[in-house]
């Protein structure tokens, strides 16, 4: 779609100088705006952990930042992201520029999106072979603190606070819990 | 002996777990994660199954994959909350530091206001004395004046007074009696306050600028950071670490007063400890031991409220006492303790030569900055005076930064930001091994910087809101590593709060603070919003909303991250900007409708409530709670002018009349201030 500033001689025939035609591409423009907005959003999330106001964050905070932006990487995957973003000369911190370029790619390729709820339900069912509909605290502790990418005490305590079903006392009724687990932070 | 209601919570330090990266992928289309699982799961299943190896491994793989899915999703949820917690923290800090920058401006405004309002020269003098920046009193004149100030004898103690009685010589029994009285919420009689402060001053005057502390006898010394009037935290510290004594020395590293509600009690208790054990209790001056800050941050208000007719004298005496507080301590010749920090020019030899009591205010010393000059230029100060001032200012106001160099601390309006290279240089020059400082609130109550050469200790827990942060103190022991002890003074739960709880407490308060700021600036904000909304749709883009809010409130905050908790957005993702004020409004007790100009005045009043209250109380010398209509109108008019709005006396009088507070020509200002509240619209009748 073209916006015609002045009368245009479409055929471009020789004559008086042809005025310029500004071509506007609304699709492209809105893409640009979306890119800009995303950039600002990413930068903001990054800056929250940038204590020194020097465009770097400590590597230990990368997981929080990346996850809060909608990605669901495992700890192992996070390590990969970290190595892509960090600088050999300064492995303890991550610079904003590296962060932005890697994050843009990750978001564009829709990486680390996590599983749909149905798969998470299936995961719980694997741990509940008798199909009771619930798992005990004991069993959860055995699985979550000793296997896979184990929780530390703090993580486990926070997990149990929301996982345990008060009424059944001491067990996690996982079907309901999944709603709570997959909480969305809008935008 | 200490009351049992002061429970202590020995919170274990939080250590972030090292990352562990052993996983098994659920689907095999991600070749970069081919890692073999350990035999742990193997063994677990081996006990319960007898099938051959291959199916066993397959089942355990499945289990592990399931476990990882759950762990990963949980970590994501947790990260969202971590982000919210950190964001709330950012809000608090930004608001705090933004406030500190305005110090001098507000102070000058206040002085001008007082001069404008108190036309009676005698009155003006009295009031100005409360806030006087001209302390050119030195030597004998100062002594006589202060003797008069501190004279306790002129205040008689009524027989009806039931609180503790303090007499010289002050001893341990008095200290314990005060603890019990303050725990009960009692206020010490003015007579005894002056007695204690007089003793305190006499001892302080003999001290050098830098306390020389040795652990030779006691083998240890405990350093306590900012307390900010938190009596609860002081009790927790004494409970966990023991009362001060010759065997249990303490260094109090400044910022004892302001913000909290028991500043005077905390100050008195520490003073008495110092008087009883003058060789084993050390005081460092903090940036809040300064009358310029006390005006804004609550100590002045607290004194006026608790000590009424004696407040003026008391505040002036405190001013003088602050100037005699030492500005740093040196432990065993190698650990330097000061409130703020250091800078590129820090030099002990120069510091020792300074006559510290010239600096009645460190932020704005009256002998350097003339009181009535708006257009004052720093560059007009002679260099040697400037350098001397900086020595003290930098010690009390500076903050560390991560990168090298030293630059002015514009965030706070005083002191420097100093980098690791400066730490290295200054430590080396003086042969020190460590710098202990306070001044910055830390979530864990403490924090290391500069390769562990700088330790920040902050002792006021729940500083921003309940659950916002722990407090900590540090024990320095001869030839042993430092021991840092954390605590959180709460009366409710005994267990450590979960992340979910901490986030909700801290965040709620932070969001409330922001919502109040919005409402208090409603006219300006709406004006700006509408500039972007030419077609009057009631909506503007997220970008524009963030821009306006940042500019009008002058706060650099993560607005995009916060947006969902502050405003409504439509289907296209644009902000419905009226919802910025959705849940709160500035309400008056009357139901009289307000027009736009009046709204603006009301918002200005709300924004400056604290200042107005202090002004009103200062004018109200006999503490009757009322000031004349004339005085009230003058204050508000002045405020209006200062805000750049053209408000006339008639408008203000109309306002006061419509709120029906005008009784016989006087205004009950408590009622007036109460009339301006920001309330949830849900509360509206």
Automatic annotation (TrEMBL), chain A:
Q: Which UniProt keywords apply?
A: Calcium
Q: Which InterPro entries match?
A: EF-hand-dom_pair, EF_Hand_1_Ca_BS, EF_hand_dom
Please give the Pfam families that the UniProt record associates with this protein: EF-hand_7 (PF13499)
Record-level Gene Ontology MF annotations: calcium ion binding
Calcium listed as a keyword: yes
- So which domain of life are we looking at? Eukaryota
The EF-hand domain sits at 37-72, 115-150
Name this protein carries in UniProt: EF-hand domain-containing protein
Q: Which organism is it from?
A: Adineta ricciae (Rotifer)
UniProtKB/TrEMBL annotation, chain B:
Which keywords label this protein?
Calcium, Hydrolase, Manganese, Metal-binding, Repeat
A GO molecular-function descriptor: calcium ion binding
Tell me its EC number(s), please.
3.1.3.16
Q: Which Gene3D superfamilies match?
A: 3.60.21.10, EF-hand (1.10.238.10)
Q: Which domain of life is it from?
A: Eukaryota
One GO-annotated biological process of the protein: detection of stimulus involved in sensory perception
- Catalysis: reaction(s): O-phospho-L-threonyl-[protein] + H2O = L-threonyl-[protein] + phosphate; O-phospho-L-seryl-[protein] + H2O = L-seryl-[protein] + phosphate
Obligatory cofactor(s): Mn(2+)
Q: Where is the EF-hand domain?
A: 520-555, 607-642, 647-682
Tell me the enzyme class.
hydrolase
Q: Which PANTHER family match?
A: SERINE/THREONINE-PROTEIN PHOSPHATASE 5-RELATED, SERINE_THREONINE-PROTEIN PHOSPHATASE RDGC
Q: What is this protein called?
A: Serine/threonine-protein phosphatase with EF-hands
From which source organism is this entry?
Adineta ricciae (Rotifer)
């Amino acid at each position: 779609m073209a916006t015609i500033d002045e009368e245009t001689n479409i055929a471009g025939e020789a004559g008086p100088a042809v005025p310029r035609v500004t071509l506007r591409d609304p699709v492209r423009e809105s893409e640009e705006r979306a890119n800009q907005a995303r950039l600002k959003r990413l930068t903001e999330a990054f800056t929250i952990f940038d204590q020194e106001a020097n465009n770097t964050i400590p590597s230990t905070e990368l997981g929080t930042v990346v996850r809060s932006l909608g990605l669901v990487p495992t700890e192992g995957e996070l390590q990969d992201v970290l190595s892509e973003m960090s600088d050999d000369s300064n492995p303890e911190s991550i610079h904003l520029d590296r962060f932005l370029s890697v994050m843009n790619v990750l978001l564009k390729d829709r990486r680390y999106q996590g599983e749909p709820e149905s798969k998470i339900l299936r995961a719980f069912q694997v741990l509940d072979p008798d199909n009771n509909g619930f798992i005990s605290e004991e069993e959860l502790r055995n699985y979550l603190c000793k296997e896979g990418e184990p929780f530390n005490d703090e993580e486990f305590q926070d997990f149990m606070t929301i996982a345990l079903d008060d009424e059944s006392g001491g067990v996690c009724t996982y079907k309901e819990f999944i709603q709570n687990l997959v909480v969305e932070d809008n935008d | 002996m200490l009351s049992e209601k002061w429970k202590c919570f020995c919170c274990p330090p939080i250590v972030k777990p090292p990352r562990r990266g052993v996983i098994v992928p659920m689907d095999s289309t991600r070749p970069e994660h081919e890692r073999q699982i350990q035999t742990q799961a193997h063994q677990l299943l081996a006990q319960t199954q007898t099938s051959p190896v291959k199916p066993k491994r397959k089942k355990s793989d499945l289990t592990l994959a399931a476990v990882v899915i759950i762990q990963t999703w949980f970590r994501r949820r947790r990260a969202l909350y971590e982000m919210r917690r950190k964001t709330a923290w950012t809000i608090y800090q930004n608001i705090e530091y933004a406030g500190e920058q305005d110090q001098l401006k507000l102070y000058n405004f206040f002085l001008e206001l007082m001069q404008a309002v108190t036309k009676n020269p005698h009155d003006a003098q009295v009031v100005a004395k409360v806030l006087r920046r001209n302390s050119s009193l030195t030597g004998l004149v100062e002594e006589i004046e202060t003797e008069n100030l501190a004279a306790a004898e002129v205040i008689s103690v009524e027989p009806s007074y039931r609180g503790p009685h303090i007499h010289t010589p002050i001893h341990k029994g008095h200290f314990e009696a005060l603890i019990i009285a303050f725990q009960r919420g009692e206020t010490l009689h003015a007579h005894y306050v002056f007695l204690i402060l007089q003793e305190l001053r006499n001892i302080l005057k003999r001290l050098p600028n830098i306390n020389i502390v040795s652990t030779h006898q006691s083998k240890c010394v405990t350093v306590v950071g900012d307390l900010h009037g938190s009596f609860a935290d002081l009790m927790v510290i004494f409970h966990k670490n023991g009362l001060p004594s010759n065997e249990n020395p303490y260094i109090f590293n400044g910022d004892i007063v302001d913000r909290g509600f028991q500043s005077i009690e905390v100050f008195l208790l520490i003073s008495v400890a110092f008087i009883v054990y003058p060789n084993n209790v050390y005081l460092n001056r903090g940036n809040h031991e300064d009358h310029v800050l006390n005006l804004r941050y609550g100590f002045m208000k607290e004194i006026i409220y608790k000590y009424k007719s004696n407040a003026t004298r008391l505040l002036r005496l405190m001013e003088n006492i602050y100037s005699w507080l030492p500005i740093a301590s040196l432990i065993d010749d190698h650990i330097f303790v000061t409130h703020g920090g250091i800078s590129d020019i820090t030099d002990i030899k120069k510091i020792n030569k300074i006559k510290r009591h010239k600096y009645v205010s460190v932020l704005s010393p009256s002998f350097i900055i003339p009181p009535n000059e708006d257009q004052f230029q720093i560059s007009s100060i002679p260099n040697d005076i400037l350098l001397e001032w900086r020595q003290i200012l930098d010690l009390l106001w500076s903050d560390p930064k991560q990168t090298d160099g030293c630059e002015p601390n514009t965030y706070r309006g005083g002191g420097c930001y100093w980098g690791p290279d400066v730490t290295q240089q200054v430590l080396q020059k003086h042969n020190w091994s460590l710098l202990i400082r306070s001044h910055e609130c830390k979530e864990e109550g403490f924090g290391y910087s500069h390769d562990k050469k700088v330790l920040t200790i902050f002792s006021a827990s729940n500083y921003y809101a309940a659950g916002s942060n722990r407090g900590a103190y540090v024990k320095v022991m001869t030839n042993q590593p430092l021991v840092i002890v954390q605590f959180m003074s709460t009366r409710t739960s005994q267990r450590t709060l979960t992340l979910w709880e901490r986030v909700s407490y801290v965040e709620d308060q932070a969001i409330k603070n922001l919502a109040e700021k919005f409402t208090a600036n409603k006219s300006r904000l709406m004006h700006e919003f509408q500039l972007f909304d030419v077609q009057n749709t009631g909506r503007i883009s997220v970008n524009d909303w963030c821009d306006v809010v940042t500019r009008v409130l002058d706060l650099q905050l993560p607005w995009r991250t916060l947006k969902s908790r502050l405003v409504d957005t439509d289907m296209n993702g644009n902000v419905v900007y009226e919802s910025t004020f959705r849940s709160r409004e500035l309400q008056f007790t009357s139901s009289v409708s307000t027009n736009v100009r009046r709204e603006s005045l009301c918002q200005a009043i709300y924004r400056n409530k604290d200042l107005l209250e202090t002004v009103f109380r200062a004018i109200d010398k006999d503490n009757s709670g009322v000031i004349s209509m004339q005085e009230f109108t003058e204050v508000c008019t002045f405020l209006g002018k200062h805000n750049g709005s053209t408000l006339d006396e008639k408008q203000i009088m109309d306002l006061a009349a419509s709120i029906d507070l005008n009784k016989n020509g006087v205004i009950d200002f408590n009622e007036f201030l109460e009339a301006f509240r920001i309330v949830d619209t849900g509360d509206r009748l």
